[in-house]
Amino acid sequence: MKPFVKWVGGKRQLLPELRKRYPFSIYPITKYAEPFVGGGAVLWDILSTYPSIKEVYISDMNSELINVYRCIRSHIHPLIAILAAMEKEFTVLDNEGRKRYYYQKRDWYNQLHKRQEEDSILQAALFICLNKTGFNGLYRVNQKDEYNVPIGYSKHPVICDTENLYALTKILQRLTIVSGEYQDSLQFIDENTFVYLDPPYKPLTATAAFTAYTKDRFTDDEQESLADYVHTLDKHGVKFLLSNSDPTNTDPTNTYFNRLYEPYNIDRVWANRMINSNASKRGKISELLIYNYKL
């Protein structure tokens, strides 16, 4: 199993480091919660490795993304039919034709988005199509809540990954899938739960927030509210692992997260910066992994 979308900030490249910190073999954990599920790289990795987990809760504040999860779970056959047709249509076009196709689909997606319909199969298909053909797997909206990512450069995008989608639909049948804020997960979580948190990262520069995937940006106030949530988990004996950016990449004196999560373990691990359109500005940077248990 693998994520059904490309996702900026996805954790596939960090999985080796995350696996070193999974607590399943050390503690009696039977439940798993991921309140910022995103593309689901960690979710699929954990469910593939630890099938004995009895209950799973995922959520995200991006309601469009959650709609896709629900449609893969409940409407897989019509979803695949639409995606297969889109892939066939897109593949035969030249570059100009692909541009017209992409921006027509983007306009259509934004029209559907305004209706706020639940379990919209067409909207889910457009989401996946735009993700696979747009720039770098980015999901970005403006202040009008309109998806505004430009077309990407992939010559052979796989819009319909049929085999993987069928594998995912089987797993999703037993998951609780919620569109909402991370605080809602407290109703599911108990001392037998492992919680992985991958919130929108604190921007390292003034322009880095252009990757925001909801019209409401995740500010420092939200980062601090999330820390309060984490402290609540810790007080109830819940094991958590949290990832975030490392401000010392751009300012060695910036110890924002060290102060915010002082009681816990804070590890710095290396990751590749992949979002910049200028390849010369991509490279290794450190990220933070924060957790409250012994390994």
UniProtKB/TrEMBL annotation:
Keywords annotated in UniProt: Methyltransferase, S-adenosyl-L-methionine, Transferase
BP term (GO), one: methylation
GO MF annotation list: site-specific DNA-methyltransferase (adenine-specific) activity
Reaction equation(s) it catalyzes: a 2'-deoxyadenosine in DNA + S-adenosyl-L-methionine = an N(6)-methyl-2'-deoxyadenosine in DNA + S-adenosyl-L-homocysteine + H(+)
Entry EC number(s): 2.1.1.72
Family matches, as InterPro entries: Ade_MeTrfase_dom_2, DNA_methylase_N6_adenine_CS, M_m6A_EcoRV, MeTrfase_D12, SAM-dependent_MTases_sf
SUPFAM superfamilies named in the record: S-adenosyl-L-methionine-dependent methyltransferases (SSF53335)
Family, per entry: Belongs to the N(4)/N(6)-methyltransferase family.
Protein name, per record: Site-specific DNA-methyltransferase (adenine-specific)
Lineage: Bacteria, Bacillati, Bacillota, Negativicutes, Veillonellales
